[in-house]
Structures are given as structure tokens and as C-alpha cells.
Amino acid sequence: MLKNNGLVFSFIKGTVIAVIFSLLSVLIFAFLIKIFSISMGAIKPVTTAIKIIAVALGAFISTSESKGAIKGGIAGLIITVICFLIFSILGKSFAFNLTFLWEILLGATVGAVVGVIAVNLKK
User: Fold this and answer.
1) At what angle do helices 43-62 and 2-36 cross, to 10 degrees?
2) Using a CB cutoff of 8 Å and minimum separation of 24, what contacts does 47-54 make?
3) pLDDT of 56-106, one tens digit each?
4) Are 19 and 86 in contact (CB under 8 A)?
5) Three-state SS across 59-99?
6) Among 3, 49, 81, 108, which residue's CB has the most CB atoms within a 10 Å radius?
7) What's the CA gap between 42 and 32, in Å, rounded?
8) Domain spans of the chain?
9) What is the pLDDT confidence band of residue 1, given thresholds at 50, 70 and 90?
10) What is the reported pLDDT for 123?
């Protein structure tokens, strides 16, 4: 039972850190857009990069010991969905569409890859 509590805690810790990183990064990027008049074409690639880094960070923190691909993939999935919900609430628009499905797939894939790396680095 204690091992399961540690697993749940690591998922919560990784998710919280990833969400905070994502929120702060988007806030900083919005500030930079305002100051430097960054083109609208740059927004999507930068926000995608922020999502990837956030998921990688969260998956790395959430994964240890074994089953890195599974744990990392689950962490990536959880982080992606939670970030989507938070940003949808803040933006006051929910859009469950093909883009959201691609983001889930990307989050799970990045999480799985980082999970494998994390397990091997933490040995």
C-alpha cells in the first residue's frame, strides 16, 4: 500500500509542477507577445513547445523505478487533459475536436518516451 501512495504522490507532484510550468510559461509568452508584437503565426508552435516541455517535465518527475513507458504515458495523458481543462476554463471555450485528440496523443507519446528515459537515468 505504501508503494501505491508513493506512486500517486509522484503523479500528483509531476502533474502540479507541469501545470504550474505551463501556466507560467504561457503567461510569460503572452507578456512577450504584448511587448514585442510577435506575429500570430508564432503562437501555435510556441504553445505546442510549452506543452511538450511541460509534459516532459511532469512525466520525468512522475516516473521512477520501472514501467517507464506506461507510467510516463499515463502522466502525459493526465497532464495534457488537466492543462486542456484549465486553459479551456480560463479561455471560456471547450472544443473537443481532432486537435484535442492529437494533443492527447502527443502528450501520451512524449510522456512515454520521457518515462523510459527517466527510468534509465534514475537507476
Assistant:
1) 160
2) 48/106, 50/22, 50/25, 50/26, 51/22, 51/80, 51/83, 51/103, 51/106, 51/107, 52/106, 52/110, 53/21, 53/25, 54/18, 54/19, 54/21, 54/22, 54/25, 54/79, 54/83
3) 999 999 887 788 899 999 999 999 999 999 988 988 888 888 988 999 999
4) yes
5) HHHHCCCCCHHHHHHHHHHHHHHHHHHHHHHHHCCCCCCHH
6) 108
7) 12
8) 2-121
9) very low
10) 66
Enter the pTM of the model: 0.89
Tell me which amino acid residue 12 is.
Answer: I
In the prediction, which pLDDT does 63 show?
A: 87
DSSP label at residue 1? -
Q: Which amino acid is at 86?
A: I
Q: Would you say how long the chain is, in residues?
A: 123
What is the grid cell recorded at 78?
Answer: 493526465
* Average pLDDT score over residue span 110-115: 96
Query: Scanning the structure block, which residue is given the C-alpha cell 520521457?
Result: 114
Amino acid identity, residue 64?
S
